[in-house]
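Inverse folding, one chain.
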């Protein structure tokens, strides 16, 4: 959930806390289930879907890249929840 910007206020724009975990994880599980069902409809990684015209392989590589880029964002959210920083 995005916080409101206040001139001279705290330098953050994401408000997250542990109460959001269950709903967020349930949404992620639903999305994974739909993705698994759609992936299962393809005979091979080279098959082309009806969506963007690219192969299943291309789309999965794109998804993996997006997850990798957003891992840092997720770490910032986790830090807001548990206050732990570092490795």
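Residues assigned per position:
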């Amino acid at each position: 959930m995005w916080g409101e910007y206040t001139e001279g206020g705290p330098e953050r724009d994401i408000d997250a806390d542990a109460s959001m975990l269950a709903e967020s994880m349930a949404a992620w599980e639903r999305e994974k289930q739909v993705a698994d069902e759609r992936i299962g409809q393809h005979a091979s990684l080279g098959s082309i879907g009806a969506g963007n015209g690219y192969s299943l392989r291309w789309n999965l590589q794109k998804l993996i890249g997006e997850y990798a880029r957003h891992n840092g964002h997720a770490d910032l959210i986790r830090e807001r929840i548990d206050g732990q920083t570092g490795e």
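Helices lie at 21-39, 56-82. Residues 34 and 40 are 10 Å apart (CA to CA).
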